[in-house]
Design goal:
This protein is 65% helix and 0% strand. The chain has helices spanning 2-7, 10-21, 45-57, 63-76, 81-93, 99-114, 120-132, 138-153, 159-174, 187-200, 207-220, 226-240, 248-260, 266-276, 279-283, 287-299, 305-318, 324-337, 342-353, 362-368, 378-390, 396-408, 424-435, 442-454, 462-475, 481-490, 493-496, 501-514, 519-528, 535-539, 556-562. Helix 3 packs parallel to helix 5 and helix 5 packs parallel to helix 7 (120-132). Residues 532-563 are annotated as: Disordered.
Length: 563
């Protein structure tokens, strides 16, 4: 009866008609419509927050609606910081940005902090509203950091406040929207203090709040910190006893955080594996969460092949909607874990090899399919190429497409090609990835050679030179005389002492194939393996790949009796 009375407003009736025209479910007397489709006016703060939360949960993004709500919020909540901060966080979750509203919230929070009247819940909401939109306000955020640190010292911070605030600060850190330093404390002290307080009061945190803490530490990318490592192990012990409460999103957060922070704990990996074996949990994994799970298990070289096979099936299900970032991450993780999935790699190859530069029909496909290699970064292209190399996918059209993408890739910071700003190890990794499948794109290899020649000789380390020669020997690439002198400078006699036995043997084999004269290398190899043939005896006749002899096909009768 109350719902029927509220719907009688003109605005509510119009919104209901619009909802029916757009295919929304029809509401009956038993199912009340959402609040943002009902209320014609916003008489008080409670109604405002109810309507805003209803619209945000329904992903309602009408800018006129949110602008009207924001003007009402500034009028109704001008003396209530908590209500205004709550509305600002709700509007931000719907991706509505009102700079005036955020400045008002920040000014009210700073004024409350100066009068020692800032509550933990209000502080968390202020930081959350700024973090969702990556809104930079150094004065407000710096003061909120100081107030959070003071609350930790005085034991005033609640579990919800600590988890939400650290997560918001980490999101601002990832977006480069944090000030250089806060007014009263260093950020490292704040993180260590928060980790210590959270570790001492883990029983007060819910599973969602523990996952927020983990996500914060992953965003800050903290490694090797004793206090943070102790916190992660404590959270692992707590979550391992609550496996049934972990959602698919929680599984992705946990796996990625422990991998990013380099904290290995077999208990949490076993708990995640048992949870992810449930079909209902796996099917709810989004593409981002699936990428995080695979990254976590691959980083610690998980040997649970059965689980990784199940996850590879989920990757195939999401493959049509993956962009270059997610596809490179997933394939690289599966390749690192040593999972053989020919069906997945075959489908990925078909997606990436359909378009070739200069093809007129390729334009429409690049628009329709989200995996556009022209938008991929250099690191994503490198990871994708190495993944196909580890899977031993020898497709000439695919690698031609990848080589062209490397040449066309632009740097994200400077208006130049990405290849020109890469270091020697990264350039050699590109050559190594193509050489693993015995493919040598002429233009790409030529560009890499030219860039290596333009670098100072001391920038090329001995191990990088060995890796480079080993890759060139696989494809029997002809080295220019200038490049030979550049490489020989990195393989001087006193630098060969840095190499181990297997690296010396690898270098010896590459030198024989490429016809390089290294007397010091020959002396060292002869001392290790006296019966090994010398380099000079085979330098004039480099080894070639053996060609199998053709045999005459046997008849069906002979095949039957000789199998």
């Amino acid at each position: 009866m109350e719902a029927r009375k509220l719907v009688s407003g003109r605005l509510g009736a119009q919104l209901l008609r619009c909802g029916k025209q757009q295919g929304r479910p029809k509401f009956t007397a038993t199912t009340a419509p959402p609040a943002h489709l009902v209320y014609d006016q916003l008489p008080d703060k409670a109604t405002l927050l109810l309507v805003a939360q209803s619209a945000a949960s329904s992903n309602y993004k009408d800018q006129v609606f949110w602008q009207n709500c924001s003007s009402q919020a500034r009028r109704l909540c001008q003396d209530d910081l908590h209500a205004l901060a709550c509305y600002a966080a709700t509007a931000a979750s719907a991706q509505h940005q009102d700079d005036e509203l955020l400045y008002n919230v920040g000014d009210m929070a700073v004024a409350a902090a100066e009068n020692n009247m800032l509550e933990p819940g209000s502080l968390a909401l202020v930081l959350q509203s700024h973090a969702i939109l990556a809104f930079r306000n150094d004065r407000v955020v710096g003061r909120m950091e100081s107030e959070l640190f003071e609350m930790l010292r005085q034991s005033k911070a609640t579990a919800a406040c600590l988890a939400t605030s650290l997560l918001s600060l980490s999101q601002l850190f990832s977006a480069s929207a944090l000030p250089d330093r806060s007014e009263r404390c260093e950020r490292s002290e704040l993180i260590d203090g928060g980790a210590r307080v959270a570790l001492e009061h883990l029983s007060f945190f819910t599973v969602a709040q523990l996952c927020n803490l983990l996500q914060a530490m992953a965003n800050f990318r903290i490694r090797g910190d004793r206090q943070v490592s102790a916190l992660l192990l404590g959270i692992s012990n707590s979550l391992a006893r609550q496996t049934s409460e972990l959602s698919s999103k929680d599984c992705g957060t946990i796996a990625k955080t422990f991998a990013v922070c380099r904290v290995h704990d077999e208990r949490i990996l076993t708990a995640l594996a048992s949870r992810l074996r449930e079909k209902d949990v796996r099917t709810l994994l989004t593409a981002e969460e699936l990428s995080s799970v695979l990254y976590g298990f691959a980083k610690f070289t998980s040997q649970d092949i059965a689980l990784l096979d199940l996850l590879s099936i989920e990757v195939r299900r999401h493959l049509h909607a993956l962009d270059a970032t997610l596809m490179s991450s997933m394939l690289a993780s599966l390749a690192k874990a040593g999972v053989s999935c020919p069906v997945l790699t075959g489908r990925a190859t078909q997606i990436l090899r359909r378009t070739l530069p200069g093809n007129e029909s390729a334009v429409s496909h690049r628009v329709s399919h989200p995996c556009n290699l022209q938008l991929a970064t250099f690191s994503e292209l490198s990871a994708l190429t190495m993944a196909f190399a580890k899977f031993q996918v020898r497709d000439s059209r695919l690698h031609e497409r990848l080589a062209q993408a490397f040449l066309e890739c632009n740097d994200s910071i400077q208006p130049i090609k990405a290849l020109e700003v890469q270091s020697c190890p990264e350039l050699i990794n590109v050559v190594h990835a193509f050489a693993k499948v015995h493919i040598a794109p002429v233009k790409l290899f030529g560009a890499v050679m030219g860039l290596l020649l333009s670098r100072p000789p001391e920038e090329l380390s001995t191990r990088d030179a060995v890796k480079f020669l080993h890759a060139l020997a696989k494809v029997e690439y002809t080295i220019l005389p200038q490049m030979k002198g550049h490489i020989l400078a990195a393989l001087s006699p006193h630098r060969l002492n840095e190499l181990g036995v297997f690296e010396l043997l690898k270098l010896a084999v590459a030198a024989r194939k490429l016809g390089l004269d290294l007397p010091q290398l020959e002396a060292q190899v002869s001392a290790i393996l006296p019966n090994e043939p010398s380099l000079q005896s085979q330098s004039g006749n480099p080894q070639r790949r053996p060609v199998s002899k053709r045999r005459r096909r046997k008849s069906a009768r002979k095949q039957k009796w000789s199998w």
